[in-house]
Each structure stands twice: as structure tokens, then as C-alpha cells.
Write a structure and sequence with these properties.
Length: 267
Amino acid sequence: MTALSTVGWAFADTWTITRRDLNHWALRPGTVAIGWIFPVMIALMFGGLFGGAIEVPGGGGYFDFLMPGMFAMTVFFGLENTMMAVTTDAAKGVTDRFRSMPMSSLAVVAGRCVADMLNSVVGLAVMVGAGLALGWRWHEGPGPALAAFGLLLLLRFALLWVGILAGLAAGGPESVTAVQILVWPVGFLSNVFVDPATMPFWLGAIAEWNPLSVTAAAVRDLFGTPGFEAGSWITLNAIPMAVAWPLLLVAVFLPLSVRKYRHLSRT
């Protein structure tokens, strides 16, 4: 078999797994819709309950500041869905069945990645629609706005591989709960809702270096919406770091995910 035909079969196998995952979602649209609506509820809750108590840099409404951070939080929340789907397939023996077939070893994890990326695009679109309805707007033109959405999807792509590895490493669906407990502190330990300068120094430094914070700061910059004017290096270089962080995560977790999948039955 030539190298070209091998690549062709890998793409075909990946698309087969992608269609299989999309078909599963079509059979349970309610669960998928809840996943899209949940971040909107979080935005409404924080914006309505706490927005009046938080001073927005340069004035303006809190939703104008909040929504770019919630876009980043939306792609971050997708990590849990990826973990659960991968773990459930492994626990039910579906993954082992795939491994016994004459198919690319990358196709199963890559197919999951493609399906989840498509889901994330829809979820992000729902969140953007909610933001527009709440009065949020971007102010820097279509080019920077597209770049901001590109950074958000780049972060989601990187987090997919984190979720795939965590799902493959989990002993079963019940083990995912322990990992999910860590997702929320990481998500809230960021600049999505409040200024890290209001936190204790060491905690604020961690929050600023959080990849979620870096992406949120970068998209606020590109959208031209208000953001906290911190003078730290990571904040001043938010846009290049919003590219560097996801690329680093992909470089680490993608090969680990493929290796874990190939050796799954040996662990």
C-alpha cells in the first residue's frame, strides 16, 4: 500500500468515526442542546447577579466585558463532554472493537476530535447570538473578530486532546467525576469574571497565566471590548501567547493521546 493510499484510508476512517459520533448526537438532541444552553445560563447568572457590583474598565456594561471571557469558557466547558464520551466508549468495549478492525490507529481519536470541533462551532455560535442579544458587540471590524474566533477554536482544539487523554486514562465513567471537579476551579481561576489583581498576588499570577485567561484577554483585545489593564508580561503579550499555549498543549497531549490509544489494552 502506498503512502498516499494510507493517508486516504486514514481520512476515510476518521470521517466514519466522525459520522458515528454525529449520529449519536442526533439521537439525543436534548442533551446536546443543554450543552449549548448551559454557558448562556452561566453568563446570565453572573451578568445579572454580580455585574452591577463589578466596575468595568473604562466604563460600559458588564456584559460587554463578560461575553468574550464566556466565549473562552464555552470552549473550555467542552472538555468535560469529550472526556465523558471517550471514557464511555472505552468502558463499553467500543474502543477495543475499533482497535480490532483494520483501520488507522489515529482515526478513533481524530474522529472524536472532528465531531467535537463541529459541536463546539455550533455552541460558540449560540453563545455569540446570546451575547449580541444582551448588547455585546465587537468594535474592531470583521478581520480582528475572525482572528478572535480563530483563537477560541484553537484553544478548543488543544483542549480536545487533553480531554481525549483524560478520557482514555480514566478507569470508567465514574472516574470522570473526579476529573470534572478540577475543571471548574481551573475555569473560574481566570480573568473571565473578575480582575486577577483583586486576588491574592500568588493566586492572581496563576490566574493570569491560565490559558483560559490568556485567550480571554486576547479576544477582548481583538474585539475591542473592555479588559483589565494589567501590566504583567503575560497580559501585554496575550495574543501571541493565545497561540503559543494551545500549540504547546497540542504538542504534548496529541502524541500522548495516540500512544495511550495504541496501548490501551496493555494498561
